[in-house]
Amino acid sequence: MKILVIDDDLTVCKSCQKIVKKAGYEVDYSLSGHEALQMMEKTAYDLVFTDLKMTEMGGMEVLRFIKTKDPDIVVVVITGYATVASAVETMKTGAFDYLPKPFTPAEFRAVLSKAVEERKATLKDRELATQRTITSGFQEIVSESPKMETVFNMIKKVAPTDSNVLIVGESGTGKELIAQAIHKLSKRKARKFFAVDCAALSGTLLESELFGHVKGAFTGAIHNKPGVFEVANHGTVFLDEICNINMEVQGKLLRFLQEREFLPVGATQTKSVDVRLVFATNKDLKEMVAHRTLREDFYYRIFVYPISVPPLRDRKSDIPLLAYHFLKRYSESFGKSLRSISRDAMKALCEYEWPGNVRQLENVIQAAVIASDTNILTYKDLPEFRDPQKVPYVLPRTNIELKRLKKELRLKTVEKVERDFLIHALKRNDWNVTRAAKDVGMQRTNFQGLMRKHGIGARDVKL
Q1: Distances in Å between the alpha carbon of 193 and those of 163, 235, 258, 319, 356?
Q2: Residue 299 half-sphere exposure, CB side, CA atoms within 13 Å?
Q3: CA quadruple 172, 173, 177, 179: dihedral positive or negative?
Q4: Using one digit for the tens of pLDDT, what is the confidence trace for 315-329?
Q5: Among residues 115, 95, 98, which one has the least CA distance to residue 47?
Q6: Which residues, listed in sequence order, are joined to residue 153 by a DSSP beta bridge?
Q7: How far apart, in whole angstroms, are the C-alpha atoms of residue 424 and residue 430?
Q8: Which residue from 3, 15, 99, 174 has the least number of CB within 10 angstroms?
């Protein structure tokens, strides 16, 4: 631990230096803000104690500089001008704590101890996240979630076989990565892997894409064109979003699944190939069968070995891993030197529900890396995904998804109302908890319980 004390009073600096040295930490001091900034350019400090009112440069300017340089450096503001307004402003800017003068050695040691623990926790989070990003995962799928471990085990079992596989999961969960993992672990790994997005092609174009066509089969068919199945012979074909295939193409695919034969568009002679098929969908196929938009015989042909991929909100332990994984990728890609994510930024990432799943998280990190001007990704770098009212939600496709979305929106609305209710009650009563509880007609214990739920602690009220 390296600690810097900034105060234009030499007596304060010497006193703090003595206490810090006795605690066993390295310590420097500076009598001006400008000199302190120069020192911080040369030395990496873990903790900074800065006076709020100084002649050349105030503690707020120092605090802002530090939070731009490295938001995870722990800053404690010390001052003789102990007012609620100045305390709230420093805390909003990112100060860890606030120590009014005059303070006793015991008071300073108590704050020092808390600040050291905060810094250690931050450094541990960074180290663990980096280690996990390197060691966790399976076939390029980054995860340490028990739910994904189940998926990995299913992949290992089915990959060596020639069985058809159906991957079910919401958009953005990484279904194509799973299909690629199946291919890489199969006996076909030396052959080609083709991915076809069935949602991007109309029925006629999809048929031509899969089966190929002969010259003159339709307007613009000026020569023979082999389809994906023919080119991928002895390999694997991944058909994504199969729920978008029309009934006619379903029938032709059904025959292919049964016989491994197909007829190119406009041809009169069938062709035979050896291709493994992996399907994926984000819809409830049973519901489609019931509504007669999916053939029942086709459904049973593809529903041989289903793998269900959990959404990101059900495996939140993977968010830090994925965030660091994408941070490294885009930092290197854009020629930047971002090495970590601040705690407040990570907290925001972990608390979000991610309706767009891993794909949305990747896009958010990519945008944040572009926006960042430092070597640490901070909360201010994150795009406005944080406020659910500013982000269009993913339109639910099924009744189950609709119910879940309604529940999530209700919870977020209630939480916001509760927090605003507490803050306004406390403000009206000069942050006195007892008076605020009485004002709103609640028992003090219940009021405090609601405060704890929303992370409003006693220290916040004191400040």
Answers
A1: 16, 6, 21, 29, 26
A2: 15
A3: negative
A4: 998 999 999 999 999
A5: 115
A6: none
A7: 10
A8: 15
Residue ranges of domains in the chain, CATH in brackets: 2-134 (3.40.50.2300), 146-308 (3.40.50.300), 312-381 (1.10.8.60), 399-462 (1.10.10)
Has residue 395 got a pLDDT over 90?
no
The pair phi, psi for residue 185, each rounded to 5°, is: -95, 5
Task: Provide the token pair at 161.
Answer: 């076989």
Per-residue exposure over 149-162, b if at least 16 CB sit within 10 Å of its own CB, e if not: eebbebbeebbeee
Which token pair is 4?
């810097």
Instruction: Give the model confidence (pLDDT) of 17-32 as tens digits.
Output: 999 999 999 999 999 8
Q: Is residue 43 within 8 Å of residue 2, measured between CB atoms?
A: yes
Question: Is 56 exposed, middle or buried, given 0-12, 13-18 or 19+ CB atoms closer than 10 A?
Answer: exposed
CA dihedral for 377, 379, 383, 387, sign (positive or negative) = positive
Q: Across the strands, what pairs with 48?
A: 4, 75
Sign of CA dihedral 135, 141, 146, 149: negative
Q: What pLDDT is recorded for position 414? A: 78
Question: What average pLDDT does the segment 410-421 reach?
Answer: 78
Query: In angstroms, rounded to a whole number, what is the distance separating the alpha carbons of residues 242 and 246?
Result: 9
Cis ω on the peptide bond leading into residue 102 (within 30° of 0)?
yes
Q: What is the DSSP string of 215-277?
A: TTSSTT--S-EE-HHHHTTTSEEEEE-GGG--HHHHHHHHHHHHHSEE--BT-SS-EE---EE
- 246, amino acid identity: N
User: Helix, strand, or coil here: 301?
Assistant: helix
